[in-house]
Structures are given as C-alpha cells and as structure tokens.
Input
Amino acid sequence: MSDTLFDFTLEEAKSRHGELSRIIERANESYYQKDQPEISDAQYDNYFQELQKIEKEFPDLVTPDSPTQKVGAAPSKGFKKIKHAVPMLSLGNVFSEDELEDFITRVRKFLRVEKAEKIELTAEPKIDGLSCSLRYEGGELIYAVTRGDGYEGEDITQNVKTISDIPQKITGQVPDILEVRGEVYMRRSGFIELNKNQEAQGKQVFANPRNAAAGSLRQLDSKITALRPLHFFGYALGEVSAPVAQTQWEIHQRIKEWGFSEASPVALCSHIDDIMAYYNEVTQLRPDLDYEIDGVVYKVNDLSLQERLGFVSRAPRWATAHKFPAEKAVSIIKDIDIQVGRTGVLTPVARLEPVTVGGVVVSNATLHNADEIERKDVRIGDHVVVQRAGDVIPQVVEVVKERRQAGFQPFPFPQTCPVCESKVIREEGEVAWRCTGGLVCSAQAVERLKHFVSRLAFDIEGLGAKIIEDFWQEGLIKNPVDIFRLEEKDKNSLTPLRARSGWGEQSARNLFQAIEKSKTISFNRFIYALGIRQVGEATAKRLASFYKDLPTLRGSMVQAQDPEGEAYQDLISIEDIGPAVADDLIGFFVEEHNQEILDGIEKYVHIETYEQPQNAGSPISKKVVIFTGTLEQMTRAEAKAKAENLGAKVSGSVSKKTDYVIAGKDAGSKLKKAKELGVKVLSEDEWLELIRT
Ligand code: IVH
Output
C-alpha cells in the first residue's frame, strides 16, 4: 500500500481519480484511435498503477467506466446509436414464494383466468451478463446493439462478430427479418484465465465476469474484443417479419435450431410447486455452473397471452425474474455520513471497513433514513451485517449486538443540512428528513444537474458525475442553461477546457459535440430531466402524452393553481397523478427561478412535440376514453392497457374533453355525468366492435 495514498481523504482520492481517469482516457484515445501516443508507455503505466492503487484503497471508486475496467478508449464520437424496432425491456423481480404467487395472481386477474385453469410458465436461468439484440436480414447478421435505455442502444456489431458462438449467417427456415436477443457473458473459467494474463502483463484485473464482459464488449478496437473469451446465450426475439412460434417454449427451440446456445435447464411449469422445484434445483446447480446467474426468469408460455398481457412501464406483465437471496457479510461501521439528494432528502450512509460481499468489495452501505438507524439502533463502531443483491445499493441489515462495546453512542441525526446548513424538516407521513435549502443548497443543485444529464434524461456522454462536480465548484456550470452555453463561454475563456489538466483538444471537442447532440430532445425525456419530485419516467411520459408540448404544460400548470378550475381537474385525471404529485408539479412550474431556467433552456434546446408512439391510424388514437362499471369480457386493467396501446388516453373523470365513456354493468355517476354532458356512451360490445375495425 502506498504511504502517500494512505493519507488521502475520500474527496482527495475522488479528485485524483477523476484526473487520472481523464489523463488515461486521453492517452488511450491517442494510442488506439489516432495511433499517435502522446505519452510514453512507462508514463502510462505509472498513471495506471496510481489509479489502481487509489481504487484498491477506495473500492467504491471502481465504476464500470473507470479506465481500469476497460482497456482502450471509447470511440471518438461514442458508438453509433441504433433505435430498437421493438423496445428492449427489463424485468420485474420477485424474491420469495409469496411474491411469486402474487405475480401469478396478477397474471390470472389480468386475464380473468379461473383458479382451476392452468397457466403455463417457462422457467430458465437469469444470466448475469449484458443484453444484446442481434438483427438478421435474409439470414445475415446485419447489426448488433446493446440494450441502452431500452429504446436505443449502441452499435457493437464489429465486436459481436468476434464472438464465436454467435452465427453470422443463419440457414434453413428463417424469417427475412429476425432479431435474436440474449446475453453476452464471460465464463468463470475464461474470466480467471483472462485476469491471470492481465496480471502477468501488468494490466488491470476485472472485479467479476460481468465487468470483464462489459469492458471487453465496449472496446473500440474489435481486435482486443476478439482476444476476450466472450459467449452468448439467446433467450428472446425482437422484431420478426413472420411468426415463428406460438409459445415461449417453441421460441427456445427455434433459437437453438438457428444455431445459438441456450442456458439450461429450461422447464415448462404449470403449478407453483413445479416452479419452486425448478428454482430450488437451479439454486443447487448454481455453484457448479461455469457462468454466473443471479436468479431465474419465468415467462408466460402462450404468446397470445403474452400479447394480451403487454407491458407496464419498462417491464412485461408476462414475465418476472426470481432473484436469488442477497449475499451477506459482517463489517464494522467506521463512520456515518449524510448525503443530500436531488430533492433534498438526507440519506445516511455507513462507511464500512471494506468487505467482500458476493464477489464485490463493499465499503459503503445505505442506512436509508433516520428511523431506520433508530429502529436498528446502529452506532458508529458497531459490527453490522451487510447485504448486497444484484445492482441494488448495499444495505446494513442488522447490528451484531453481542459485539457492541461500552461507550458506543446512538447516532445524532443532524438537525441542519450538512452541506448548506439550512434547517431540515420532516413532512407529515414521510420518513425522510429534507433540507429546506432548495435552490441555495449546493448538494441539491449538483444532484439535480447529474440527473439532468443522466442516461434517461438529456443523456450527455462525457458529462459524468465527477465532471459535473468539478464544473460546479469552478462556477462553470451552475444550472442547466450553463451546460448549453458551455462551448460559447469556453471560446472566450482564458483557461479553455482543452488547456486544462486531464483535458485535450479531442476530449473537449467530444464533450461539446455530445452537448450539441443533446439539444434535440423528446418532450417526455425533457420532463423527466427536470427532476421534479415524484415525477419519474412513467409519469413524465403520461404528462408528455397529455400536454404534448412545453408551452401547453407550463400554461396549464399555472392555471392549475386553482383547484376548482378545469386545468387542475385535467391534471389529476391523468393516471397516477393525485393531489400530492399535482402539488409538486404546480409548485415546480410556478416557482420564479424555475421559470427563468425553463426560459433559458428553451432558447437553446429543441423539445420535440410528443408523438403517440404507435397506432396513429387506430380509430381511438388520441381519444380520451373512460371505463366505468364492470366489464364482462376483460378486466379493467386489460381494457385500459389495450386502449392505451391503440393510442387512446384513459382518464378517470368525465369532462367535456372525454370522447367515449365505456359503460359496463352497474355503471353509476360517471355514466350519469356523461349523459348530462352529452359525451358518447358505448356498451362493452360496441367498444370491442369499435377497436376491432
Ligand atoms: S427476458 C421482455 N430472459 O435480465 C423480457 N432476460 O433484469 C426480456 N436476462 O434486460 C428479458 N437472463 O438482460 C430474459 N433468460 C433471460 C435472461 C434475461 C438474463 C437479463 C436481460 C434483462 C435483464 C432484466
């Protein structure tokens, strides 16, 4: 261990880590892309070793995009982006038999399937790798894309072509357009071998097979990828020009016939006991498998049922992951820090003696909130059980009370914000303490900026957390508008970016290009980027779909201050928007400072008007519909999902803007109101007739 590093505080380590990362990335860029090394190999190795030492000392700084986790540079303009023809979604989770039962009940309820009737599910291992979509046209591999944000991923075709178990050509019975989806992964044996070689050559070692696979796949130079032992398992289809199967089981057969490998075992289950038996069997097999899995996946077998079930937000209703229990270890709490989030929430974080949990070194764990600290009676110095599951932030589960020493004091939760010293308050019914500093609190400002540029928001590559923090400190970026003025300001600056330590001509240009590219953004992403409390991705989409553009949204929010008025009624008629969310939204848009920022952003950014994603030609596209009473042929949830898929807006309360009220059995006040307002009323049969055409 280096003696100098030992004295680094976390802040100093972070700062040096960022600096070294930029120097190394720049060196990689000049070496790999321009074939013109700017520094000597020895210098490079020195920097690299220093970075490794810091990461050894402060394991939390090892992020997937640290230069130690990838060799070579990302391509100069980033990988090309490709839109997915069919979105690549994620999966919901269950962690217990009870939750699994709830999942099955939800599926049954949605489909209105009686208890006596069977619903078949396929069961298969959940591989811990990186998902990838392979597109074939006329049997030829055309391109390969990462999942990205689910709607758009990165073009990794060249790298994927080096993976030997991915066929480049599919022969036999194959539809003209075919997308096979699955997981790129590294076997444990390959990973151990790779790390041995890396170590022998003085290069970085990877933390686990998944990181190694990620680092290998994100290589600019596919010659390097070719040397990495990557593999692929297929498990799903994307766009397909002709039907190839009627069940998930048959999909698995086709995928194998086309020459792909599949993880095994795959089973067909129709009773919870079979499913649990499968889960237990795979749990037993897990330690002996040569690849890492983090659970199993269940999918409704019948594809026509899958279609009826559809999606909610980012996950299908017809599938779920059954995750393995979290891994646990014991460590000591060295300190408790308070982090201040984007919306001012104070989150206590335990700084731990580094400990390996499930193959990853953990030195921080969340303590959630003040109540949790009190409930678990966590004190500095305590031995605690720490757990980690998948990508979830490690948590402190409990204190090992027998090991507590006399003199350990209860933790005094701060009464003021540790960053801006404003008072902290706790609203009624909430567990979280919040800093009241709002716009003056620098922690909140920095977190808001990080959110603004994050992947599902403006998605500005190269403007990572560290850089945002640095730029904020220097006063270069104090609010979102400054991001879009950065290049302009830089031109007139005495210390332009390119002349700063860790930056160069190319990296500065890349950043400006990424910012330029982000200046066209969809309306839903834009709303999400604003980081309004309680407005996540799904709510942002609903707002975008309802208001269509920013001027309309802004105008409506100002009008909605009157809770008796129509604008307010419209707002709370949107699904999942109740009075509390409405308050946060209105509060945000009427706030003067926020209005200035919005005006500023509008000068630089083109916000696209929201387009209903599908079915513009459907008879109910853009119509506002309301379901009331009991439907007989499908559940309310299914009817609603179907209407939304066809481009309708499903609302909760009848107004003059309602196009159709679909009245089931025993419809009451909404039907009455519809008649009063002269809104068209349809019976369930008439409705089904309308959407059939
Ligand atoms: S199916 C629409 N099957 O898990 C459903 N996913 O946590 C698509 N994964 O994004 C996914 N093994 O990357 C499916 N056998 C399997 C899987 C699997 C691993 C990954 C996949 C997905 C993630 C969700």
Q: What stands out?
A: Residues 1-5, 71-77 have pLDDT under 50 and may be disordered.
